[in-house]
Design goal:
The chain is built from eight helices and six strands. The chain is α+β, with helices and mostly antiparallel strands. Helix 2 (about 45-60) packs across helix 3 and helix 3 runs antiparallel to helix 4. The termini are far apart.
Length: about 240
């Protein structure tokens, strides 16, 4: 029977007791001892995925609540009285964990790509994922500033991040968007514009995008950093 219980601070002290015992037993061989849950995927997630998901839950209250809700739903669907029901419960959690880690992994890869492209002046995550309000079906919104937007929009670099199922361009004036659907992965909107998109004084559209939530991923010249500060300052003045 699957039983879900609230977090108990005693678990932390029990872990410390076990960790001390393991350090004593293994000595210098115990280079690192981590406390993670019972996630599994074909025999077990690799260590870094265990830790990445645990750290996400520690710092993201919404992620914790979503994970708790998923577990409650799965427990109601699969009581756990049989091995098959327990496996369905475990598989459901695994699918959620995989989806939670997919976007951070994509953003890490995208950040490395942006830093390695000389034509990319700056890049940022915007929209719901930057605000922390994304749901499972939310697309990933990115802004890329470069000197030749048209060339970037026409190139085949999106396949760097996965198997492209479809792609299309949407025009928003100063910013044009390349919307890409990845097979088995996220839907990503790559917004591409000239560096002047972030020039001061800010265009109302730029100000709205940056003030609504932005996480800078690549910005060696700090053009987006300055624009983000200006957008927040102007928004605060309007509210005041």
């Amino acid at each position: 029977m699957i039983e879900l219980v609230p977090y108990d601070p005693v678990w932390r002290s029990r872990f410390e007791e076990e960790a001390r015992a393991l350090r004593t037993a293994f000595g210098a061989l115990a280079r690192r001892i981590e406390h993670v849950g019972s996630l599994c995927e074909d025999g077990g997630f690799r260590e870094r995925k265990h830790i990445a998901f645990r750290d996400r839950l520690r710092t993201d209250a919404q992620a914790r609540e979503r994970y708790a809700a998923v577990k409650r739903k799965l427990a109601a669907l699969h009581g756990g009285s049989t091995h098959e029901e327990r496996q369905h419960y475990s598989d459901g959690k695994t699918e959620f964990v995989r989806s939670m880690l997919a976007i951070p992994a994509f953003l890490e890869e995208f950040s490395r790509w942006a830093a390695g492209r000389p034509e990319v002046v700056a890049a940022a995550l915007v929209g719901s994922h930057a605000r922390g309000t994304a749901t499972t079906g939310s697309d990933v919104d990115l802004v890329i500033l470069c000197e030749a937007p048209q060339d970037l929009l026409a190139a085949d670099w999106p396949k760097t991040f996965g198997d492209v199922e479809s792609r299309g361009i949407e025009d928003y004036g100063a910013l044009r968007s390349l919307r890409v659907h990845y097979r088995g992965g996220p839907e990503v909107e790559f917004g591409v514009a000239l560096p002047s998109w972030a020039a001061l004084p800010l265009d109302p559209g730029t100000r709205a995008v940056l003030a609504d939530g932005a996480c800078i991923l690549h910005d060696p010249s700090r053009i987006l950093q300055a624009a983000r500060r200006a957008a927040l300052r102007q928004s605060a003045q309007r509210m005041g």
